[in-house]
Amino acid sequence: MKHTNIINKVLMLISPIFVLTTLWVFLHFVDLSPKITPDFFFSSDSEIFKKDQQIQQEFPFAQQVILNIAAPNIQAQNYVSKIETLSTQIEELPDVDSVNSITHGPKNIEEALNNPLWKRLLIGEKQKSSSIVVFVKTENYTRLIKNIEHYTKDLQSDNFNISISGLPYIVEQIRQNLTQDMKVFTLSAVVLCAMVLFLIYRSFLVVIGAAIACATASMLALIIQQMMGIPIGLLTANLATIVFVLTQSHIIFIVSNWRHASNNKNKKEATLSSALSRTLPGSFWAMVTTLLGFGSLIFVEAKPLNQLGIGGSIGTFCAIICAYFVFPAFLRFSKLNPSKLSFKIAKQFPVSKILASKITKTMLVVAVLFGAVGILQLKTDPSLLTYFEKNSELYQGLYYVDENGGSNPLLVVVKRRNGQRLDTQESYDMMWDLQKAFAKHPDVGSAISLPVILAEGDEHWLGKLLPFKTLVNILSGDLFNHIGRSFINEDRTEALFFLRMRENGREKDRLSVVEEIKTIPEKNGFELKQIGGTYYLQGELSASVAKSMLTGMLTLITLFMFISFYLSRSWPATAAITAAIIVVSAIVIGTLGMFGVPIDIISSPAINICLGMAVDEMIHLTIAAKRYAKDRGLRMNKWKSWKAGLNEQSWPALTSAVTIMIGFSVFAFSDFPPSQRFGLEIVFGAGLAMIATLIIVPYIATINWNELKIDIKKKLAQQKAPSK
Question: Measured by CB atoms within 10 angstroms of the end CB, which terminus of the chain is less buried, N or C?
Fold first, then answer.
C-alpha cells in the first residue's frame, strides 16, 4: 500500500507536466489547416494514381478553374468589355498559367461563336453564357481562389452572373468548410458533452479533468500524426472529435466502476485503485476492437481512408493512455463522493423479458428488411454537388457550370487499331467521328480533342494550305504554347480526348459510365490505351470506399465474434453480441440506402465508429456479467448474471451513448452536408448501439435454446395434426 501511494503521488506530479508539455508542443508545431490537394484521392504509391500520373506526364494538362458568366446578351459590348477586364486580371495572377475566354483566344466574339474549338470550350447552351477557362500552375489553391473571388465580387450582378467550378475551386471550398466545422462544431461538441457530464457528476473538478484528459489525447494524436508527416485531410479533420469521444468513453466507465467500488467503504485511494483495475480489462479489449476498426482502413488504396486508419490507430492508443494517466489525478483531488452518484435511469434496466423479447424481435425484423432492401440502394458514388447545400449560391453556381458543358474532367487516351500515325487526313477524319461519338453520350457535357484543335488552325488561311502533319507540329511548338502536346504524343500514335463530364442528374455510378465510354473508341476504329482524370479517380475512390465499408464491416464482425468468445467463453453470449452488432450495422446501412442518403468519403467512416462504440459497451457488459457468474458459480446464460452486469454497466453505457449523441448532434447545424451526415449517422448508430447493448444482448444471451426447440417442435406437431 505504501509503494502504491508513492507511485500515485509521483503520477499526480507528472500528469500536469505531461499535459502542459503536450499543450505547448501542440500550439507551437501542429498545423490545423486542412491540406486537400488534387492527389487526395489515392496515395502516391497506388497503381491507380500512378496510371493517372502517366497520362498527365505524356499529355501535359493543367488543372482548370471554370468561370461561367451568364447575361441577357453575351454579344453586347458592355459584356465583352467586362469579360476582357476579368480575364486580364486573372491572367496576371502568379498562380495562373494562361486564360481562355471570348477575348483571350479567339479574335472576336463572332469567332468564339462559330469556331469549333472556341464554341465547345467557351460558349454555353443557347448562347446564354460564356466561360473563362483558367489554367492553373499551382497546387496551393487557397491564394488563387481568394484572388479570383475578389475580382468576381466586384463584377457580380444580375446581368453579369458569375458561377465558378473546377476541381481547384471545389477542393478549396471543401477545405474552407472543414476548417469552419473544426473551429465551431468540434468546440461545440466538447462543450455540450462537458455540460452533460456536469449534470451527471455535479463536480466541476471531475468534468474539467475529463475535458483536459480528452483534449490532451486529441492533441497528442494530432502531434504524433504531424510528426509522421500526415497533415489534416478530408477525414482526419474530424480526428480530434473522434479521439475526444474515445477517451471520454474510457473515463465514463472508470467513474462508474469507482462508484461501485465505493460500496465497499474503503479509503478513497483504495477505491479508485480498485476502480481502475476493474475497468482496465474492458478498456483494453475496447481499445483492441477500436484498433481493428481503424486498422482495417490502413491498407485501403483510398488515401483519405488510409490516413484516417493511421490517425485513428494513433488516437486509440492516446485515448487509453490519457484516460488512465491524466484523468485519475483529478479524481484524487476531487471532493466528489462516488457513492452519491445517481443511478435512477440505469435502474430501469434490465427491462422485463417480455418487453426485451418484443424489442429484440422488432429490431431483428427491421434489420432484415432494411438491410436486404437498403443495401441494394446505397448511394456510394454521389455527385460532387451533394457536398454542398442545395439552396446555397455555391451549389447553384456549380450546377450552372455543370449544365453548361460539364464540370468533371475525364481523360481518354486512344490509338488506332493498326498503330498508324494520327497526323494524317484519314486519322483526322476518324478522330472527328470519335469526337462526335463521345459528345453524344448523355453524361458528356463537352469534349475537346486534337481534331477540334486542328479545326481552329484550319480556320486560318495558311492552315488551309498546310498538311495536317505540319499543323500538328506547329500547334505543338512555342508559337501556340505547346497546346498540341496536350492532345497528341511525341510519336503521333496516341491522342487524348478531354471530356468534361456532367455530375448533375447522373443515375449510374461513375465507373459504370466510364465502362460505357470505354466501348466508344472500339466502335470507331480505335483502341483504348489509358483512362484517367478526376472523374475516373473519384469513381475509383467511391468504389474503394464502398468495398472497404462492406468488406471491412464483415471482417470486423467476424473478428469481434472471436474476441467476444475469448472474453466470455460462452457461445450464447458470443451469438448475442454478434447478432446485436449485425442488427446495428444492418439498420444503419439499410436506412442510408432506403432514404437515399449519399455515402460520401467524409461521412463513410461513421459506420465504423458506430460499430466501435457498440462493441465497447458490449465488452464492458460481458466482462461484468462473466465476473459475477464466475464469483457465484453461475453459467453465463443465466438471467441473474446479465442482470448483475446491467446493474453495474447500464449507467456508463447510457451516459456514454447520451453524451456522444448530444455531442455529435451539433453537426446537424453545419452548412457542410458531409459533416451533417457524419454527425447524424453517429447519433443514429449510438442510439441503436445503446438499445442493442442494454436489451438485445442480455435477451439473446439468456435464451434457453433447448426449451425453444421443444416449443417449436410442439407447434409444428400441432400444425401437422389432423383437425377433428
Answer: C
